Amino acid sequence: MNGLLVLFDLVLLAGIVGVAWRCLASTDLFRAAVLFVTFGLLLALAWVRLEAPDIALAEAAIGAGITGALLLVTLERLRSIMAERRSGRPHTPPPDPTGPHALLRALHDPPPERRTFIPALTFALVVGALLVTTLWHQPPSMGLEPVVDAHMDASGVDHPVTAVLLNFRAYDTFLELAIVLIALLGAWSLGRHDLIPARPAPGPILPGTLRLLVPVAIVTGVYVLWAGSHAPGGAFQAGAILGAAGILLVLARPRQLPMAPGVPLRLGITAGVAVFLLVGLYGLAAGHGFLGYDRAWAYPLIILIEVAATLSIALTLVALFVAGRPAGDDA
Amino acid sequence: MTPADAELLPAGIAGLVGLSLAVAVLATAWTRQAHRIGLLGALAVTAWVLGLSALFLNAGPDSETAATRVALGGWDAPLGLMLQLDGLSMTLLVLTAVVGLATSLYSLGYVHDRIERRQFWPLWLWLWAGLNMLLLSGDAFNLYITLEVVSLSAVALVALTGTAAAVSGAMRYLLVNILGSLSFLMGVVLLFGEHGVLDLVLLEARTEAGPAERMAAVLMTAGLMLKAALFPLHVWLAPAHGSAPAPVSAVLSGLVVTGSFYLILRLWMGVFAPLATPTFGILVGLLGVGALVWGSLQALRAGRLKSIVAYSTVAQFGYLLVAFPLMLVDPDAWRVVVFFAVVHALAKASVFLAAGTLQHAAGHDRLADLGDVLRGRPRTVFALGLAGVSLMGLPFTGGFIAKYLLLEAGLGTVLAGSVFGVLWVLAIAGGGLLAAAYVLRMVAPSFQRGRADAGEASSPWMDWVPLGLATVAALAGLAGTLTLNTLALTPGAP
Amino acid sequence: MSGLAETVVHALTPGLLYPTGGATLFALGLYGLIRRHHLVLRILALNIMGSGVFMVLLGVAARGEGPPDPVAQALTLTGIVVAVSATAFALGLVVHLTRLTGHAVMLPGPPDDDAAMADTSRGEHHADGGPDAPPSDEDPPS
User: Fold this and answer.
1) Do residues B234 and B301 make contact, with C-beta atoms less than 8 angstroms apart?
2) What Cα–Cα distance (Å) separates residue C33 from each residue in B188, B356, B484, C47?
3) Which of A20, C123, C41 is nearest to B111 (CA)?
4) How many Cβ contacts (< 8 angstroms) between chains A and C?
């Protein structure tokens, strides 16, 4: 049995490294994007093998799903922009796209020049070898699992990862939400969304599927959010699932943003950090320290923060996909 | 320290974090008033930091009583995160507040386009909050997170004007930053794998000169050097500065780069202290000499005002590297180095702000054609010159005291028999001459005969703030003893 | 199984294999970052490096006999979210850079920064694209 698991690990790792290598070696960018999504899914398997189901969920939803969507839409936009520049007039997307290959085949990157080969290879091999030898000689670490376990009763939730994220090390999670928001502010500061080429209108299949898919996604997202308190799941995974549903809606109606511009959107994206901060300041005022909870109130406060965070993450991921600030924002 | 003070200091520390974040969140949610929120926030945060410093200085005669750690959420390390405040972080917090306030006031005049204003202020306030949190952080992973907050907002600010050059400089800066952050994170992972804790104080107690620590030191220092534009990993700095708005350049060269330097110092004084051998010190010193020489030569060659200033940042940070071997020989030298970094940050920020005013007036910053504006704006040129004098290290300025103390430390090593000591002394003295050369290059046209034209009218903030900040930089020498004594309130200092 | 094979199999725990895999990914990503010039590929290389770091972290956390370390898992989750945020922002920068300059390639080495640039303080928000990039270093390879 042990031998089979080792074999599985070796095959999986070989697959992961192999896919990553082919991805970086591609000359066709569309192929690189697809290989990257495959890489993400294989990573999710690796995380399961490492007994990290929360991370596997997050990797599949965020690392493979959301990042994959962002990559493909970016490649499409790049091709539109370059086509516009070549022809000198606005690129009109074909009314009925024949498939992704037709749109994206034009993006290539030539293979790199020979003279950087030796230095780059040596450098990478040296770094890799040093890391590997360092890692092989480390003692088995005691880790923080016993410490966390000892405090689980006081945390208000039953799942250790959620307890760490939203109670013991809540400050890091708060800053993580801030980083997502800052990334959006950065993307919005670059330009309005009408600067970016519009997508083609979809055929009938996508809206039809969405009618079935979006309710399922919403239910799944809400379940994953609620389940996070006692099982793998939580705000980030739920936010990613809802965000993916939002992205599908944007794809179905490219000329109409599914979210209200202006004030409701602003409030939505700042809701996560705002609620988190208010809870934190309240804790400071009440004597539990910044971001501290009263033991009896820990669970409701955590749920409150997670709900606000899920909403913000979902909205922010969709807004990052649209990638330009809404017109109403400049008024 | 009175019992009341003992309560107040941790609350003050946590409150600073809360206030900085609240200001940033508010400006993000209500962008129409973001500039007003920014101004009020800047004043509030500066006042809070000054109050905190008063509390801190009153707290105790030695580092053991003054240095404070706050357990966030009531969870002590190793379970939770700790914030920490000591002499080093207090000094840099005050620096950040002063430069931050000056930049905010300047930006009231500089960023006047209604649309750009709504993007600038939230990002700038997040950057400032990130810097405060970086300086107060006591946990290795939290340091990575605060570094990311600072980096992402800085990149967004560099790209703000939307020109091709700005976006290109920002892209390069972002790639370099992400690489640096990942290198840093890998180092944190190695330390966590070896010792099982993330808290800086706990790590300091457990690390020794082992292979994991060595690898982590290389990775984390390399990552931070990339972010601090320390030679030879400085390639991104000049292009990013060239097209960033003036207040952004001021913060980038004054605070962000200083923040990375602070982290390198903090790590090497604490977690990696067992690894700091004299040989290593000499290697770093040689890098510093390289930075000084190369940066100064590029500054002498550059054709644009902001490029000169950007390369001078690379050169001045060479001083900090040259001081590293001195720190190993003379335990008190590190305080002088930090003082030097503080004065440099003040002077550099005011130079960038003054350069921004000149660029706005003339419509460009090509040195060859700036003569008219230089002659027509004496106040701004005086600010430029005053800050430049501090960078050069002329007597009676803050820069002079810092370089004098560094020279003293260098001569000390020579007397102690170190061969390389001669090189360090020559570098410190020679660097001052090179700095004089490029500073004079910047202001020389104003002494020549020619037309004087004030150029495009600008807001009074853009006229007076550079002068104010340059005066602070020059007068920083008066606060030298206070600064050095504050810095002494750092536990674990060599 | 024979004694030698059994020893090898026992040694190849996930706590050893996955950190090695992570280090390999880190080095591979670094190599790709240096060698490829297209910005999207560089962003992918950085993502692969990041995944390498997470694999090392989770591998280290899975060492030993007991349940895995929840702090390490929380850190990885945070890291994944930070990575996607940075990636999203970076991809946005690439789109705007291409819109302004016509290509998405960044050659190594410092670009020419002494070319004349428009004043940045006059508040012209370049909604319709600014001046083209300076020549030489920024041209894509043919």
Assistant:
1) no
2) 22, 35, 43, 10
3) C123
4) 272
User: What length does chain A have?
Assistant: 331
| Residue whose tokens read 């080093």 | B88
Integer angstrom CA distances of residue A279 from A227, A274, C125: 22, 9, 38
| Residues of chain B neighbouring C18 (CB-CB closer than 8 A) | none
The string of pLDDT tens digits covering residues A87-126 is 776 655 554 444 444 444 446 776 777 777 888 889 999 9
Phi, psi of A173 (to 5 degrees): -65, -40
Q: Give pLDDT < 50 ranges for chain C.
A: 113-142
Length of chain B: 494
Chain C interface, best mutation among B35, B81, B120, B167, by max C CB count within 10 A = B167
Q: How many residues does chain C have?
A: 142
Quote the crossing angle between the two packed helices C39-61 and B164-195, to the nearest 10°: 10
* Coil/strand/helix, residue B332: coil
Any long-range contacts for B409-412 (C-beta under 8 Å, 24+ apart)? Answer: B409/B323, B409/B326, B409/B329, B409/B330, B409/B332, B409/B333, B409/B336, B410/B326, B412/B326, B412/B329, B412/B330
Q: What is the pLDDT of residues A193-219, one digit of tens each?
A: 778 877 777 778 888 888 899 999 999
Tell me: pLDDT of A162 over 60: yes
User: CA B68 to CA B14: how far, in whole Å?
Assistant: 11
At B64, the pLDDT band (50, 70, 90 cuts) reads: low
Q: Residue A108: helix, strand or coil by DSSP?
A: strand
Identify the residue with better confidence: B154 or A285.
B154
β-pairing, B68-71 vs B82-85, is antiparallel
The token pair that represents B138 in the structure block: 């006591």
CA distance B323 to B343: 15
Q: At which residue do the structure tokens 């952050």 appear?
A: B181
Read off the pLDDT of residues B74-132 as tens digits, 9 standing for 90 and up.
Answer: 888 888 899 999 889 999 999 999 999 999 999 998 888 878 888 999 999 999 999 99
Give pLDDT tens digits for A11-48. 999 999 999 999 999 988 999 999 999 999 999 999 99
* Owner of token pair 């800086």: B200
CB contact under 8 A, A55 and C91: no
**DSSP alpha helix (H) spans, chain A:** 2-25, 29-49, 53-58, 67-87, 100-104, 117-136, 145-151, 160-163, 170-189, 205-227, 235-252, 263-285, 298-322
ipTM strictly over 0.90?
yes
Residue B219: which of B194, B252, B253 has the closest Cα? B194
Q: Which amino acid is at B177?
A: N
Cβ atoms of A47 and A56 closer than 8 Å: yes
Q: Assign residue A99 a region: left if phi > 0, alpha if psi is -120 to 50, beta otherwise? A: left
Interface test with B, best of A169, A181, A295 (most B CBs within 10 A): A169
β-bridge partners, C38: C105
Residues 184-243 of A with CB under 8 A from B: 185-186, 188-191
Task: Read off the pLDDT of each residue in B449-456 and give the average, rounded to a whole number.
Answer: 79
Entry pTM: 0.92
Bridge partners for A192 per DSSP: A325
The pLDDT of residue A258 is 52
- Calpha distance A49→A9 (Å, rounded): 8
Task: For B69, list phi and psi in degrees, rounded to 5.
Answer: -125, 140
